[in-house]
Structures are given as C-alpha cells and as structure tokens.
Amino acid sequence: MSDEPTHARDLGKTQSITERLAHETNTPIEQVAEIYATESAELERTARVKTFISVLATRRTRIILNQRSVS
Prior knowledge:
Layout: H1 6-25, H2 29-46, H3 53-70
Helix pairs in contact: 1-2, 1-3, 2-3
C-alpha cells in the first residue's frame, strides 16, 4: 500500500483531470478547476454512492464547458 496520503492522491488526480479538460476544451485551467470543484462538491454532498464522483464530475464539467463554447 502507498505511503502517500489519500488527500494528496486526490489532489493529484483532480489536477490531472482539470489539466486534461482545460487542454481538450481550450479553457483556462483556473476556470476548469472552479467548475470541477463546484460539480464535485455538489456530487459529494448529494451522492449516496461516492465511488464514481470523479467520473461524474468530469463528465458534468465537460458538458458545461462544451455548452459555454457553443454559446
């Protein structure tokens, strides 16, 4: 098992996700990180099963960013 704390792994995963989405959507990382954090927090607050929160937050963030680029 890794010595790295879970929180540090989560931060690294979040950073990787936001960087990838920023690159895919040509959006500033700060803006992507803000949207992702909002979506993650909402899912964390309301989800009964928390296993796939990062997957769902990524999907929701991508949808929001794509809608903004079309507008």
